[in-house]
Amino acid sequence: MSKLKVAVIGCGSIAIHRHLPEYASNDSVDIVAVCDIVEERAQKSAEKYGAQAYTDYKQAITESGADLVSVCLPNYLHAPVSIFAAENGKHVLCEKPMATSDEEAQQMIAASERAGKKLMVAHNQRFVASHQKAREIIANGELGNIYSFRTTFGHGGPEGWSIDGANSWFFRKKEAFIGALGDLGVHKADVIRYVLGTEFVEVASMIESSAKENSDVDDQAVTILRSENGVIGTLTASWAYKRGEDNSTVIYGEKGNLRLEDDPDYSLIATFTDGSRVNYELGKIQTNDNGGQNSSGVVDHFVDCVLNDKQPLIDGEEGYKSLKIILAALESNETKKNVSL
Amino acid sequence: MSKLKVAVIGCGSIAIHRHLPEYASNDSVDIVAVCDIVEERAQKSAEKYGAQAYTDYKQAITESGADLVSVCLPNYLHAPVSIFAAENGKHVLCEKPMATSDEEAQQMIAASERAGKKLMVAHNQRFVASHQKAREIIANGELGNIYSFRTTFGHGGPEGWSIDGANSWFFRKKEAFIGALGDLGVHKADVIRYVLGTEFVEVASMIESSAKENSDVDDQAVTILRSENGVIGTLTASWAYKRGEDNSTVIYGEKGNLRLEDDPDYSLIATFTDGSRVNYELGKIQTNDNGGQNSSGVVDHFVDCVLNDKQPLIDGEEGYKSLKIILAALESNETKKNVSL
Amino acid sequence: MSKLKVAVIGCGSIAIHRHLPEYASNDSVDIVAVCDIVEERAQKSAEKYGAQAYTDYKQAITESGADLVSVCLPNYLHAPVSIFAAENGKHVLCEKPMATSDEEAQQMIAASERAGKKLMVAHNQRFVASHQKAREIIANGELGNIYSFRTTFGHGGPEGWSIDGANSWFFRKKEAFIGALGDLGVHKADVIRYVLGTEFVEVASMIESSAKENSDVDDQAVTILRSENGVIGTLTASWAYKRGEDNSTVIYGEKGNLRLEDDPDYSLIATFTDGSRVNYELGKIQTNDNGGQNSSGVVDHFVDCVLNDKQPLIDGEEGYKSLKIILAALESNETKKNVSL
Amino acid sequence: MSKLKVAVIGCGSIAIHRHLPEYASNDSVDIVAVCDIVEERAQKSAEKYGAQAYTDYKQAITESGADLVSVCLPNYLHAPVSIFAAENGKHVLCEKPMATSDEEAQQMIAASERAGKKLMVAHNQRFVASHQKAREIIANGELGNIYSFRTTFGHGGPEGWSIDGANSWFFRKKEAFIGALGDLGVHKADVIRYVLGTEFVEVASMIESSAKENSDVDDQAVTILRSENGVIGTLTASWAYKRGEDNSTVIYGEKGNLRLEDDPDYSLIATFTDGSRVNYELGKIQTNDNGGQNSSGVVDHFVDCVLNDKQPLIDGEEGYKSLKIILAALESNETKKNVSL
Amino acid sequence: MSKLKVAVIGCGSIAIHRHLPEYASNDSVDIVAVCDIVEERAQKSAEKYGAQAYTDYKQAITESGADLVSVCLPNYLHAPVSIFAAENGKHVLCEKPMATSDEEAQQMIAASERAGKKLMVAHNQRFVASHQKAREIIANGELGNIYSFRTTFGHGGPEGWSIDGANSWFFRKKEAFIGALGDLGVHKADVIRYVLGTEFVEVASMIESSAKENSDVDDQAVTILRSENGVIGTLTASWAYKRGEDNSTVIYGEKGNLRLEDDPDYSLIATFTDGSRVNYELGKIQTNDNGGQNSSGVVDHFVDCVLNDKQPLIDGEEGYKSLKIILAALESNETKKNVSL
Amino acid sequence: MSKLKVAVIGCGSIAIHRHLPEYASNDSVDIVAVCDIVEERAQKSAEKYGAQAYTDYKQAITESGADLVSVCLPNYLHAPVSIFAAENGKHVLCEKPMATSDEEAQQMIAASERAGKKLMVAHNQRFVASHQKAREIIANGELGNIYSFRTTFGHGGPEGWSIDGANSWFFRKKEAFIGALGDLGVHKADVIRYVLGTEFVEVASMIESSAKENSDVDDQAVTILRSENGVIGTLTASWAYKRGEDNSTVIYGEKGNLRLEDDPDYSLIATFTDGSRVNYELGKIQTNDNGGQNSSGVVDHFVDCVLNDKQPLIDGEEGYKSLKIILAALESNETKKNVSL
C-alpha cells in the first residue's frame, strides 16, 4: 500500500517537537513538504526528514502532492490555511485553538465538509491516559452524580518553548488573538468536556495581562463554568505560574473524588466514600520542561481516521465547542456578564 | 484583678467545641451564663462550666452581669442578638458570617460604636500560623507582585458537625440564609483579604444546591474575584467534597508560589524562582474530623482586646468587608453579572 | 418483621471475635442460644449477648427455637453438628474446613438439601475487597491468559488466637484432623479458586510437623496445583512464619501481574505490560494480631441468603471443592504421588 | 609471571556480557581465542579483545594454546565441549546447566578428574552478597532451625537477552533440552542448597509450556522440595513473569525470617522473633534489564582456583547436585510422582 | 527457692519509673522496703508494691531484712548510703554517677569488697541493643582501626523528669555536685568506653551554666578525649537541647562508620568502605519523653549477678572509671589544662 | 569598560575546578596569565582559557599586566606570593588557610594596606545559602540566646581531589604545615564565626595523624571553643571519615535548634520550642565527590569588591581571625593547655 503524504505548514516548536517526529515514526506516512516563512527553518526540517522545503504555504499544499496537511502556525493563520488546504482536497490536522472566531471555525468545518475530507483539531490531552481513565470512571457511574471540578493549566509562559523565545507571536494580540487562554485554557475546556461527558452552557471570566512585559495578550485567566446538567467548576489558565507546571484537574462527585495529574507520583487518584483509594501510575503528562510531548497520539489517531475513514475524536465540531468556551470567557471579561453558550 | 464575665448565647457545636472551652481556659474570664432555646443543652453546659443556664437570650445578657457576650446562634440571629447585647453595654464576639445583609452588618457596627464596646467577628482562620506566615512573606515582598490565587474550603457538609445533624438550621434558608458560602466561603473571603493585604472590587459567582437533600441553601459555590490591584483568583466553597476536607490556598507571585494547607505534611510550602523551597510545619488546621478547633486563638484575642482596649484584628468593619464578598457572590449568581464592591 | 433466631454452637475465639459480634450487629437477627462444653464460656457469651447458655449442642439447637445455627467447633465436630442442625430444620453456617473427609462433606450437603435449608461455609476471604477486585480484573480479561500464581497463608500458629492457647484442639490430630492446611491452607484453596474462576485437577504436596512441640498435626505444607486450563501454582500454609502474618497471593498473566495483600501499603497492586500500575487501598485484611476479623461480611451474607432465599456464595458444594484440594494434599504427602481431583 | 590463556567458546550474550569482560578485567589472564559458529560474531569479539577468532571449537581449544576454556554454548553442547577441553588438558568453566543428563554430568566430572584439571560451573548467584550473608546467618544458627522457604526466578523470557532474540536456541528443546527450569530454575536449586547448607532428597513438580509461541520447552515450572533434614519449600522458575524480574528467596526459621532480593531497597532483610530487623544494602543483583551481570565474581574465582590450585566453590559435583534437582523436576512432571534424589 | 529481698532507697523518678517496676517484674525478688525523706512518697510506693515504707534509710536497710539495696538518691548521697548498705552486708545497685569524688568511689568499692557483696552502678546504656551490637562489630574488627568518634547526650533538662520539677536537687550544686555532665555525660563516658573497648587517658573540657535560671551546676559541657590507643573524639552533655533528645554516638573507623541512635528509623547504621550499608532496627532508646526507661535490663542483670555470683557488667571499678572522666572534665574546665587519667 | 585582568598562580585542583571557571564565567574579567611550576599544567590551563602560561610566579604577576592575582598554591606559599603581588600593586584573592603563622598573616594584611589594594581569603562557605540563612535567623533573634554548637568537616582525604593524588603536598608538613585542620577545619572556624556573629576567646584541641600513611600532618582534630559571650561548642576536622563527606553544623539556642547541611534532603532545618519546624531546600553544598564547587560565589564577590571598591566579606582581618583559631588548636595540642585568643 502506498503511503499517505503529509505537508507540515509551520516549522516552529510544535512542528519540531510533535508533528514532525510523530509523522516520521508513523509507518503509513511520508513527510513530503515542510513550510516556514523563515526559509532556514524550513530547510532544517526538510533535511532532517527528507522533505521538500517551502516558504509559501499554498505551494507547499498544492505542489507537494500531500494528502494530509498539518497546520502548525500562529493562531490567526489556523483558519485561512486550513480552509485553503481543505479547498484543495486535503485532510487537515490543525493546532489549537482551531480558530480565533466563531465565523472562522464554522468556515473551516464547512470547507472540510464540502471537500469530503477530515478536519481534526490537535487537542492532545484527550489522549492522555489519566483523562481517558477518568472519563471511563465517570461514564461507568463509579462517581455517581458529578457536583463540581477545578481544572487548570499554567506554567511560566511560552518564552522557553517558542522558537522565537520572548519575541514570539504568542505575545502579540494581532497574531495570537488569545494568550494563555488560547495556549492553555482551550486544552482544559476541551478536556473537561471530554472527561465529564457534558456540555457547558454558561461562562464567567476575569482576565489579566499583568505578568508579562512586551505582551498585549492575556497571561492569566480565571473562569467559572456551568454545565447543562448543573455541574459548576473553575477553569484557570496562566503563564504566571513561575514554579512548576500545573496541569491538574480535580472532580468532585457523589461517591468520591478524582485527582488527575495533581500528584507527583500518580497520574490519577480516585478516592471513594467507601474509604477506598486507587492510585494509577499511567505515565506522566509530558511537559515543556522535558522536551515537549512527542508521542501524544494525535498524529497516529489522525492518520488512522484518514486511512480507515473514521470520525476523528476531536473533529471540527468538537474543536469548535471547546473554542466557544474560550471565546465566551473573553466576552465575559469584556462585558462583565455571564455568557450563555 | 476581678475577672471578666461572659455570657455564651447558643449551646450548639461552635459553643461546645470552641467558645466555651476557650473561655474556660482563659484565666481572665468567668463563664457566668449559657443560653439555649433547648433547655437541656443550656443545662448541660451550665453544669460543665459552673454557669447559670438560660433559655431567653435577653435575660442571659441583661441579668447575668456579663461583660462579654458570645453569639453562637444560627446566622439569622447574629445581628439582632449582637445588637441587643451592644445596646445593653456588652462587648460582643459574634460568629461568622456576622450577618445576612448589609443593613444588619451596618447596624451591628453602629450599635457597638454607640455603646463604646468592642465588636469582633470570629474569623479564626486569621489566627492559623500558615496564614499569618504567608501574610508576612507577601508583605515583605518576598513573592514580588502577586498575580493570582485559588482558595477553597470544602468538606462533606455540616451534618457531622452540627448538634442537630441532618436536621440542622444550616440547611434551612430561613435560618441560615447562606449555605456553604456562609459556613465556609466567608472564611476564605476573610483569609484571602488578610493574607494578600488587599481588597476585592469585583465578584462573579455560580452557585448550586444539588448535593444535599432536604436543604434549600447553596451547597457549593464557585466564585472569581478581582482585587483593586489586579489580582484575580478563584474562591470556592462546598459541602460536596465527599472525601476529605480541603482548606487550601495557593498564591502565585512574581518570585514564586505559596501553598497553604495544601500538603499532608507541611502547613505552608514556599517555592521561589531561585530554585529554593521552604517547607513549614506549623501545626495543622484543626478540622471537624478531629473534634473541631478548640484552641483557635479567637477568644484569647477578644479577651485581650477588651482587657487592654485594643482594636480587634477582625472588628465589625473587617467582618463586614468579608461578608460583602459573599453577598456579592449571591447577587452575581442571581443576576448573572459581575458585582462591583 | 420478626427477627431470625440464631444459635451459636461453640464459644471459642471464632465465635467470640466473629460470629457473635457479627450477628449482634445485624438488625435482622437475635442471638437466642450460645453453647459450649465449658459452661463458664457459654455463660459469659450468654450474658454479653442476652442469650440462653447451653452445654449440650442438641438442646441448644432443638430447644432454643433457633432458625440459624453457627457451627464454631473443632473440625471433627463440623459435620455431625451441622448434619444434626440440618436434620432439625436449621440453616447452617459452618466454619472451615467444612469437614474432615469426603463422606462427611457429602452427608452435610445431602442433609441440608433434604431439609431444604441453607448450608454455608465460612470462607470469609471471598469477601475481602482485594480478592473480589482481582476476580473482577481477571474475569474482565484485563490480565489476558493466566499462567501461574503463588498463594500463601502463614503466621506463628494458633497459640495466640485459640481460647485454649498452646493446649488448643488445633494441635491434636484427633480433633483437628488437619493442622495449618485446615486452618489456613483451605482458605487459600478457596480463594484461589474464586479469584481465578477455575477448578484444580491435580495436586502434589509435602507436609511437615516440625515446628511445634506437643502437636501431632501438620504445621506447614507446600503444595503445587494444576488447573483444568493449565494454570500451575503454589499454595502454602504454615504455622511457622514467626515474624508477621503472610496472607498474600500473586497472579501472573499474559498482560501483567496482580499482587494481593503482598504490600504494606496497598491491598492490591496491578501492573500491566503497557507500563501502567494501579495501587488499590481497599482496607487491610484483618489479622489475628489486630484482634481478628470481626466484620468479615460472612454473617451478613448468610443472613441475607436466608432472608431472601439466595444461594450462598460459598454453599456446601463450593466448600467441598475447596476441602477436596486440602484432602488431596494430605493424600499426596502420604502417597508421594500427584492426586487427581 | 606469565598470564593464563583462555579460549571462550561461544560468542552469544553470556560470553559478551559476562565471560569476556570479566576475563578482560582480570590481570592474570589473556583472552587468546574466541569461537562461534557464526563467524562474524567470533570476529567481532576477537577484535574487541585482541584474540584469535575461530569457528571450530576443537581448533580454538587445541590450537590457541589456551590453559582455560569457557563453555558459553547452548545446553546440549556443554558436555561434549567441556569433555573435549578436559581431555585436551584444559581447565573448564562451563555455563549452567552443566549438562542435560546424569550421564553427561558424570562424564564431565570424570574427564576433568582424569586430566587433573579444574571443572567449574558458572553458578554466579553464589557470589551475590545477599546469598553469602544469608548462608552465614543460617550457618551461625542465628535463625535456629530452618522450617521452610520459597525461592523463585522469573522474568519475561530470554527473547530480550539472547543474541538471537525470539529465534534463540533457548526455545528449542533439541538444543536447550530444558527451558525456564534450565535457564533460571537451576540457579535457584544451586543457591538454595548453598544458602541452607543442606541437600534435597525429594522433588515434585508441575511444568507448563503455555506462555511462549514457537517454543517447545517449559516456560514455567512450580516445584516443591524436601531436604534431608526436613525443610520443605517451593522453587519456581518462569519466563512468564511479564512485569519485572523476580529473583527472590524467603527463608522461614525458628528465630526469624530472611528475605533475599525481595525488596526494592534492601538486598537482604532479616527479621527476628525478638522484634529486631536488620536491613542490608549490599548492592543489587544485576538483571538482564540493566545489561546483565558483568562483575559476577565467577571468572575471578575460577582464575584464582586455577592459579592457586584451589577447589572451585561450584565444582563438577556441586554443579551436578544442582542439576539433579532440575532433572528430577522434569521426571516428576512426567511421572506425576515424587522423585527421590 | 526463697526470693531475694530488696530495699529501694529514694522514691523519686528513677525509683518510680525504673527500679521499682523492674524489681516488681523480676520473679526472683520481693520489694520489702521503700524509703524517702518525704513520707508520702514512701507511702505511695509502699502501697503500690506491697512494701514497708521508711523515711530513715538506715532503718530501711537494716530493719527490712533486705538482701539488696537500690540507691536512688541525689548524687551526694550515693556514696554514704551505698557504703552503709555494704557495711550492713547488702548487695548494692547504685545510680549514676556513682559518687562525687575519687575518694567516695574508692571507699564504696572498698566497702563492698570488704563485705564480699556486689556493687553495681546503674549505667543502663550498656544494655541498649545498638551499643551492644556496635561493641561487637568493633571487637570483631569489622571497622578496622578506630580513628574518632562523637558522642552526646542532651535534652531540655531534668525539669520535666524530676519529681520536684524546676525545684529539683538536680539544679543545686550542694546536692548534685555535677549537672548535665553527671546526669547525662557520665552515661556517654561509660558507653563510649564500653563500645570502643578502650580506656581514655586525657581529657579537656569547657563547661557553662548559662541556660538554666535558679541553677548553680553545669547545664552544658563540651569535652574532648584521647584514648590509650590514640582515638580522639568529642563527648558533650547538655540540658540546653531544647528541641528533642539527642543520645547519639558516631564512630569513625578505617573500614567504615557506625551511627548509633542517630537516625529516626534505625538504632544503628553501619556503612562500610565496600559500599554496603546495614540498618539495624533494634528498638529505640527509651526517652524521658516516652515515660522513661522501665525495661532497662539493669535490675535483671543485678539480680542475676547476685543469684549466680557473677561479676556485674558495671561493677564499682567500671563505674569509677567512667566517673573519673567526668571529674577530669570538671577539673579541666577549672584549670584550663588537659587532665591525664 | 575595559575588563579586569587576572593572573592565576598555581594550576592544581582548586584553580582548575573553581578559580579558573569562575573567572571565565565572569564577564568583567579576562584571564591573562596562568602559572604552575609544572609547565604542562600551566600550558593546559593556558590553552583552555586563552591565557599566557608561566612557570615563574613573579613573571606571571609582573609581566602579564594583571590587575588581580589568585593565589592557588600550597599553604606555605600563600603569604610570600600574596605579599609579592600586593607589593606589585595587585588585588589578591588568596586560598585558605591564608597563611601558616601570625606573622605571615599580619604581613599580608600590611602589604595590601600599603598598596591600597584588596586582600580577600577564599572562605567560600560564607556564600553557602544555608550558612547565610542561619546567620540571618540568629541575628534576628529567632533562636534567642545561643548556648552551644557542633561543626565538623570531614571526608576521606584529599587523595581524590588533589592533582597529585596520594603524593600531594597536602600530606607534607613542610609545604602544608597543617593537614585536615588547615584544609577543612579553618573553613568551619570561619563559618561558625560568621554564622554566630561572635568571636572565640579560648581553644582546646587534640590532634592525631593516625589514619594516613606517608603523611606527617594531622589527619583529624577535635577541638572545643568558647566564645566571648559564653557559647561553647565543638569543631572537628577529619580526613578519616571514610564513608561520605560530613560538612554539618548544629546550633543550639534558647528557642530552638538549627541543623545546617546535616540532612540528606534539607540544607537547613530550623526547629523551634513552639513546636514548629521549617525545612529549607537551598541547594546542596557542592562536594569533592560531585566535581568540587565551581560556582562558589567567591570570585564574583572578589571582582565586585574590586570593581566597586567594596570591602570583601572575608578580608585579611577576617581570614586572620579564622586562622588564629586553627593556630591555637595546634598550640593547644602541643601544650596540653587551653589557648586564649
Fold and architecture overview:
Six copies of one chain form a homohexamer. Chain A is α/β, with parallel strands linked by helices and 341 residues long. Chain A folds into two domains: 4-124 and 296-314, NAD(P)-binding Rossmann-like Domain (Rossmann fold, 3-Layer(aba) Sandwich); 125-290 and 322-340, Dihydrodipicolinate Reductase, domain 2, CATH 3.30.360. Helix content of chain A is 35%, strand content 24%. Chain A has a nine-stranded mixed β-sheet with strand order 14-13-12-11-7-10-9-8-15. Chain A has a six-stranded parallel β-sheet with strand order 3-2-1-4-5-6, sandwiched between helices. β14 (277-281) of chain B pairs antiparallel with β14 of chain F. Chains A, B, C, D, E, F: Residues 131-259 form the GFO/IDH/MocA-like oxidoreductase domain. Chains A, B, C, D, E, F: It comes from Gracilibacillus oryzae. Chains A, B, C, D, E, F: InterPro entries: Gfo/Idh/MocA-like_OxRdtase_N (IPR000683), Gfo/Idh/MocA_Oxidoreductases (IPR051450), GFO_IDH_MocA-like_dom (IPR055170), Glc-Fru_OxRdtase_bac (IPR008354), NAD(P)-bd_dom_sf (IPR036291).
Helix-strand blueprint:
6 copies of one chain form a homohexamer.
Chain A: E1 4-9, H1 13-24, E2 29-35, H2 39-49, E3 52-54, H3 57-63, E4 68-71, H4 75-87, E5 91-94, H5 102-115, E6 119-121, H6 129-139, E7 146-154, H7 173-176, H8 180-196, E8 200-208, E9 220-227, E10 232-238, E11 249-253, E12 256-260, E13 268-272, E14 277-281, H9 298-307, H10 316-335, E15 339-340
Parallel strand pairs in A: 1-2, 1-4, 2-3, 4-5, 5-6, 7-10
Antiparallel strand pairs in A: 7-11, 8-9, 8-15, 9-10, 11-12, 12-13, 13-14
Helix pairs in contact in A: 4-5, 5-10, 6-8, 8-10
